[in-house]
Amino acid sequence: MLVIEVEHSLKELKIKDNRITLLENMGIHNIKDLVLYFPYRYEVIEPTELINQEKVIIEATLIDQPKVFFKGRLSRLTFTVLYKDLPLKVAIFNRHFLKAHMHEGMTLTLIGKYTQKNHSLVASEMKLQPLDQLEGITPVYTVKGKMTQKSLRGYINKALHFYQNHILDILPDYLIQQYHLISRQEAYFKIHQPHQNSDVIQAIRYLKYEEFFKFQLTMNYIKQYHHEHVGMIKEIDNKKLQQFINQLPFSLTKDQSTAVEEIITDLKSDKLMYRFVQGDVGSGKTVVGAIGLYANYLAGYQGAMMAPTEILALQHYQSLTHLFKNTDVKIGLLTGHLSQKEKNELYLQIAQGDIDLIVGTHALFQEKVQYQNLGLVITDEQHRFGVEQRKALKDKGQKVDFLVMSATPIPRTLAMSLYGDMDVSTIQSMPRGRKKVITEYVPSISMKPFLPHLKQYLASGGQCYVVCPLVNESESLNCRDANQIYDAMSRYFKGQYKVGLVHGKLSDEQKNEMMKQFSDNQIQILVSTTVIEVGVDVSNANMIVIYNADRFGLSQLHQLRGRVGRGSQQGYCYLLSDSKIKEAKERLMFLANHNDGFEISKYDLQIRGPGDLLGQKQSGVPTFMIGDVMKDFNILEIARKDAIDALNNHASDEKIKQLLLEIKNNLLKNNEYVD
Q1: Which of 196, 282, 291, 579 shows its CA 20 to 30 Å from the CA of 274?
Q2: CATH of the domain at 101
Q3: Which pTM does this prediction carry?
Q4: Is residue 367 part of a domain?
Q5: What is the three-class DSSP state of 640?
Q6: What digits encode the pLDDT tens for the residues 25-47?
Q7: What own/partner pairs with CB < 8 Å and gap ≥ 24 does 444-453 have?
Q8: Mind giving me the DSSP string for 432-468?
Q9: Residue 581 domain flag
């Protein structure tokens, strides 16, 4: 962020070692970190009127001797002040030490809650100074341990003056002039040392735009890099491809057809495809991927599909085997549970080109796997390709097209901004005949309210998921754990239905076996943690019960709900929560009333932010220091357009050239994205 490349030690500011330790515990390791340690809010001290049951800031005169009362370690300082001829009784806690510095007739500044009934004020803060000596705006920082606001502000002030002549503008002049931005140096000083509200507004406006512009320039530079590196032009038999699409047991939705067209266009071009396909749960992304794989096969290339777990890889293998049953596509499955002999045989078949499509986990890209002519790789967002996988493929002499599938749908324009290094396809419409999952919010952590429905459903031959946030009981969290629920349900349904238990602490083999039993209907009720979020499709399991639903994000709950009602059968979802928190209740009610994943993720983004919803590095979403993806979306989108324009029309601008050089060096240094 700063022009300074050398990371100057905190010792250069003559900070003592014990204080440096405190700063390091806060993530501040050098002077640059201090400058970039921004306030999270500001405290404005200006007088207010006395308003009943509201926070007030007043200046008043002390008119009696303060008294101190102790109750255990708690102290209460009480006194009377005169405010505009009105006597006020004041109480402040744990400030007994101030009594020695107080005397009748002195002017105080009081901040606290006023009660009109008895003309009293419970103060949260008190200054032994008149208001005119305090008025202004003060930054408030996140501090830890024994670090005080005053000390931290002093260190930041020293850091600013240390760097002040080296904080140079990195944005090109034409953008600064276009948006009437202040300088970078001004922005850093005004965010840390504002004199008025307008200083903060100006500083934040500059800093938000700068970090969004740098992010968008990086994303679009990577995208340009992909497009400039010539890929493999694939000759595809359109007639055979259309025949394959026509024989599918269902018609493609409009969105599916559009996504397929975009993928086919990419495959036929001489540019490397790096496409992001997002869609709601059950929108048919896998079918779109399968058509892309078949087109790649028709062009004479091998395809690979990578899944995050072995059990999901097995499901993809079974689904693709079914879809390609009337074709000559030869499919292989590579998992860790194969014997060495089976693996060696598979390696040979892949290397010789006897296998057209290989499905598996990240093992697909280990050194032993050599492809004859790999042309297309499909993965999900949990395994977005980093440099290791791409280098592994590049070292094999391949120029491979990439397709990344995502089941966390977000608004298209937002996706284009956040995943700016990729082309975006969006599948929003649902397949015909897909029923909405009936969702009910149950303000309890007991099954009693819907137990009759559960019994009736199980008696009809259906299967049920029961999801818990924890494996074992937690002292700190008041949640029903999976073991507890499993034991209770096993006892209740003994002799009627078999109950299974699956969680992350089990081995892959144990999880796979349990899921297989559930898939084969040997188990009717599966108690689990969120390991089933990306689990197998069990067409007979059309009811899901989620304990302590308030512990999950909305998008995660929507993913879990997507485990049921995937066919033509009616799905049911019960959200159990005894939370008394208003926001938690509102979130669960929102989910109960909405089935559109795009609406849900937008709502989730607004209340939780992108970090929790989309992940950080793995999904390419950075942690912005100042900007907020949802609140500042307009700035993010403007920065995206400006970044594209800068690459296309202003690449010769000295500052753009400098930025691109920095971006390229950082990408190579951090081993990210660029091969």
Answers
A1: 282
A2: 2.40.50.140
A3: 0.69
A4: no
A5: helix
A6: 999 999 999 999 999 999 888 88
A7: 444/576, 444/577, 444/578, 445/480, 445/547, 445/548, 445/576, 445/577, 445/578, 446/576, 447/545, 447/574, 447/576, 450/574, 453/572
A8: TTPPPPEEEEESSS-SGGGHHHHHHHHHTT-EEEEE-
A9: yes
